[in-house]
Amino acid sequence: MTSFIQTVPPSVEPVLLADAKLQARIDTTTDDTLVTSLITGARQWVEQYTGRALITQTWQLYLDVWPGVPEPWWDGVREGPITALDSVPFVSLPRPPLASVNSVQYFDNSDNATVWPSSNYYVDTIRAPGRVALRMGSVWPLPTRPANGIMIEYLCGYGNDGSSVPEPLKTAIRQIVSHWYENRGEATTAPTARGAVTVPSVPVPLVIQALLDPYRVRTWV
Predict the structure, then answer these.
(1) DSSP β-ladder status, 113-115 and 98-107
(2) Domain stops at, among 156, 175, 196
(3) CB 186 within 8 A of CB 202
(4) Structurally, how many domains does the chain consist of?
(5) Range of the domain at 206
(6) Inter-residue contact 115 to 101 (CB < 8 Å)
(7) pLDDT band at residue 194, thresholds of 50, 70 and 90?
């Protein structure tokens, strides 16, 4: 089993308030708080839809076992355990683009963490999604904690501000903000990394999805 959580959210948004207001043709400051919230909600909607991280953020990926390491599993018929045959020499990390890996840790049964030396692995930031790959002659360390025995902490995102974020992604955010602002009569509360944000419950137009589809990560395996 795998799970991943965001531990440090982006410190800024990829779209400036002034640019979002220009897109929505807003020329007053009355709704600045609302528009700021909509920018955050739109950015998170884009990240969820594409599977990408836009501004630098920190994530932790937890694994029970390394990919491909033999592990019995219940097949529902009890005809014996079925196991994988070979370990996979890399681990893909969700939310590309990958910037760097802070640490790879594994845990014993008393929850004590051991940091695995970075000389044992190569960080592939070219592939999307990025991955941690074994160096020649290295083998994955074996955790003894049965659940979440492995943790990889990493940074991802295009950069620390919006200047490095591809323009189609920023255009989509601005258009989503404008669309939600114009249809804010029917709203719902959506959870975000910065707290609850109230956004309209209307669908996002297909033209916006067309902007995002080339950047969509279909799988992170």
Answers:
(1) antiparallel
(2) 156
(3) yes
(4) 2
(5) 20-51+163-215
(6) no
(7) very low
